[in-house]
Amino acid sequence: MKNITHITRRKWITLLLSSLTVGVSSQTLAQTKFKRIRTQYIAALAQGNSTSGTGAETWGLWRIDPGPIGVWLRFYKLLQKAGNIAPAGWRFNIDDWWLDENGLIMKAPEFPMPAGKYYVTNGEEHISLLTVEPPDTTGTQAWSLSDNKTIANVTHGPCRSTRYTPENGLGTCSPVNANQNVFPLKPGEDPPPVQGCKRKKYAVLIVFGKPV
Questions:
Q1: Alpha-carbon torsion 13, 206, 186, 153, what sign?
Q2: pTM to 2 decimal places
Q3: Which residues of the chain have pLDDT under 50?
Q4: Cβ(135)–Cβ(17) under 8 Å?
Q5: To which H or E segment does residue 118 belong?
Q6: Could you tell me the residue ranges of all domains in the chain?
């Protein structure tokens, strides 16, 4: 169930991250020891020009790549017949589901975003140390990026993550109503609206390391 373009790009990300950690001159990397981790992905909600802010409690973390374990939209009815359990073992929730840029229904990320420090990149020239603070007394989590990097700097453009929730009531937001013909999305193209659903677009940050 893997799309060729999808796999190639993700393999490219892996190779590029390997070269970034040894070949890119970065003030952050030069000043801090770090360890490489298995690539993770953050779904972030923030203004593109922001370097810090609050609201990280609304962000999510994929500890493993959700693409290869996703389910194609065209196989949604099979997913229903399987009791909403994907072949990879995760459970689909019709009232809170996610799509990527290729038309794959993805496993939802982990919420809320765990507090900590993460080395993030857009997969190209930008690297930054993301700090996510523990929740305060109201549950709000502050965040900040190092080296004056913005969310736009460390957003991986080709990746899209879109969350769909019911507009009018439980069970009214179904992938059946999604237009499969628009996938894969072109660069800069928005994910499609789906009848009966509210749509929320998240920036995708690639996590490749943590401070030692």
A1: negative
A2: 0.87
A3: 1-8, 12, 21-25
A4: no
A5: strand 116-121
A6: 4-21+31-211
